[in-house]
């Protein structure tokens, strides 16, 4: 298969045309029953669209969707109005999922690094020995690397793996995983918690390097809440933004200041001192101090109706300080247990995996649905370490950079071809139902994990149903008399009732010890998620490559963004290469 790197615009447009041609070809419906969201006649009429409720992930979190199919071919993705993460809307990643489904570059068969194209049976034979050796050692040497996992079924399978092979270790690598936010919350409350800002309740919103209107798994919910609030002038006050790069949130701000991250951190300290933090007062320029005092006046006048949001450009201690400040404000923020963890089996990180490989403690490595060769920090040296693992297999929709470095690559079915389940950022669970059989012979993540752990081969449909058969009564409605009826209702609606995480009573956050101020620097480098390519995983989607940047309107490329004043000081001009 052609590599995903070095893709040129002409080639991307050719792939876009090929994907559209595949969409017009024949597709087969899955064997199991899938339920249309809108009631249809017994026999689907040719040319009449059918809508099916499902969910699609971004960075592991679900966004509810309606997949529209005509004559068995998915052609459009729309938002599910019953799902709290989509509210009937979509983002570019949801819209582009159709082209990912029909991407002609997707993997079509298992492959071995030396021999090339192979079969599932050949992989099974090659894998039998390393699996049996790992089992004999109670899992010692076996490592599973995944992206963020919110699927209750996949978490159940991973827990079963740990019980069968207690010495095996599960690692998670999510390139954009909000590491500073997670560390800041753990420091503030003494345990992992996830914040859910209620922007529909806030009249004053302060964004410090935070971009709630920008790309991310919670973009639709946050942007919908913020814009709905702003439509009513009697209920909305002001939006303040301090940021280093222009963002969609900054464009909508009532007051915005362009500041480097250290200056934004100093601004936060000044705001916290205004509520009694007693921290050493930072040096602020006159314009910045006036901006901060305007924010302070509004925060004091809107107790219980103001919130301060902090972005990943700031260190964990400043996230902790923001939680302390929000507690003084009685800010509209709910706290929940993270929906992407196993309480009894917390995962390791990529750095820990690299350390184990370097120490010779890894004999068999399974990489599931992630591409660490491309996205791992360069300092870890993961591509070189991967070559030292005696047996490795990567599972993905494309033969990407990581597949090139493992002994085996297995094709993963697309989310529109698979049975699964996912949770949204607030914990709401959804069933993922396929609209068609796998186009290229891929298998679902649940079927492949059963293969990798030596469990009994089963259909993904049966694996997912088994997860909910034991817990459905916790989510039943009064008119749900049996599991089959409840299952059909959940497929119909696209959400599982009463599955959102219950807010927890968070303790009063601690006042952190902040890191020393960094020495003055001439420039600060900010690396942010791409609004169309995210962390690079969508680089092979030609339509997303053609989407203009929401602020710069740039298409097909990267740019170093500088202010006009900074560019003039350095003798640079617009468009200079």
- Kindly state the number of beta strands: 18
Helix content range of the residues, please? 25-40%
Which descriptor suits the 3D outline? globular
* Structure annotation, total helices: 20
The unreliable regions are 1-5, 37-41
Task: Round the mean pLDDT to the nearest integer and report it.
Answer: 91
Q: In this structure, how is the largest beta sheet organized?
A: 7 strands, mixed
- Indicate the radius of gyration in whole angstroms: 25 Å
Task: Quote the beta fraction.
Answer: 15-25%
The CATH class of the domain at 111-176 and 341-432 and 439-473 = Alpha Beta
Protein structure class? alpha/beta
State the separation between the terminal residues, measured CA to CA: 31 Å
CATH architecture annotation of the domain at 111-176 and 341-432 and 439-473: 3-Layer(aba) Sandwich
